[in-house]
Write a structure and sequence with these properties.
With 240 residues, the chain is mainly β. 8% of the residues lie in helices and 62% in strands.
């Protein structure tokens, strides 16, 4: 009898430890997140050459220094992200999303042009920080498909008057695919700030025109670099 009691006392700690539930991590190992954002973008065209359809071939085109104008957009930006956290301090995410992106530039003293695309993007990013508190930095890249293009032309000083507007699907005025790199700072409660730089020119050279009073003007930008800063928020999330 004493021997059985002694064996039972030795076995009790092992049995109690085996019955204790595993401690849950302070972070979700994987989850889907719905995100939305507001975007402030800026496009640099450099020097711009402008000519009308009535300009004879061989005539030197006038050169103007373009003036970029910040563009703010709060609609329509919506994405789904799949997050996988490898530990409390390291994770990654991918997904897909639709974004309203573009630039505004004053080509000269009288012409201002707004150009935007809707894009479908697939990001991939590494996260480093505190996954439990959702305080982390992400470094990543994204490939976007520019599937819809819109252009508005304004004539006059300051904002001017709108003289042209058109919309094109799969337009040849922009690159169809454009990769970007970004850095993202997530500071808790689903809020984040993202800085993005596009690796290719936003516009295709040789395909840019605008029309004023029935006259078509061609213009050739020196470049079309696009930068963007966005403030975003995770509006819902679900454990996988």
């Amino acid at each position: 009898m004493k021997k059985a009691i002694f064996i039972g006392l030795l076995a009790f700690p092992l049995i109690s430890n085996a019955q204790e539930p595993e401690e849950k991590p302070s972070y979700k190992k994987s989850y889907w997140a719905t995100v939305s954002e507001s975007i402030l973008s800026l496009g640099d065209l450099g020097n711009v050459s402008i000519s009308s359809g009535q300009t004879p071939l061989g005539t030197l085109l006038p050169i103007e220094r373009s003036q970029p104008v910040p563009r703010f957009s709060a609609f329509f930006h919506l994405g789904e992200q799949f997050h996988m956290n490898l530990s409390k301090n390291v994770g990654f995410y991918t997904g897909f999303g639709v974004r309203n992106l573009g630039m505004i530039n004053r080509l000269n003293d009288t012409i201002r042009i707004k150009q935007r695309v809707y894009s479908l993007g697939i990001p991939a990013a590494i996260k480093i920080g505190d996954m439990g508190k959702k305080h982390y930095v992400s470094i990543g890249a994204e490939l976007e498909l520019f599937f819809n293009y819109k252009q508005k032309t304004f004539l006059g000083n300051n904002r001017g008057s709108k003289v042209e507007k058109f919309n094109e699907w799969a337009s040849n005025r922009t690159e169809l695919l454009n990769p970007s790199v970004f850095a993202e700072f997530c500071f808790g409660r689903g809020n984040y700030l993202r800085i993005r730089y596009y690796l290719n020119d936003f516009l295709k050279a040789g395909n840019q025109t605008y029309k004023v009073d029935g006259v078509t003007y061609s213009w050739l930008p020196e470049r079309s670099q696009l930068f963007a800063v966005s403030y975003g928020k995770i509006i819902s999330k679900k454990r996988k």
